[in-house]
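User: Predict the structure for this protein chain, please.
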Amino acid sequence: MIELKPRPADYKTAPIKMDPVKLDREYHPVPLENDRVRVLRTILAPHLKSPMHEHPHYVVVYLTELHTTMTLGDGRTVDNPRRPGEIAWRDALKHVTENIGDRTAVEIQVELK
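Assistant: Here is the predicted structure, written as structure tokens:
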């Protein structure tokens, strides 16, 4: 369960130019969207690499055991092994995700609007 708190009056998000849903719709279906959030179900087959894309601030809930790397917009690479049920907060970022594991990786991303 993710509980949304009231937005601060000065809260703003930067516009997203590289939307993963538009760039990679097959692997980023949207099961829910409303005025506060957009929920993505990200599915990465083994050894699949996403195109460079952006997210506003978001929460990730990992549904499967996975091992991915994220290459950030500044070129840094982050190793990201996860277990089912783990969560992570991400500030707005631009990145490429690659599933370096041998299993399909599935996660839920709750983007804040």
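Strands lie at 32-33, 37-44, 53-55, 58-62, 66-72, 77-82, 87-90, 93-99, 105-112.
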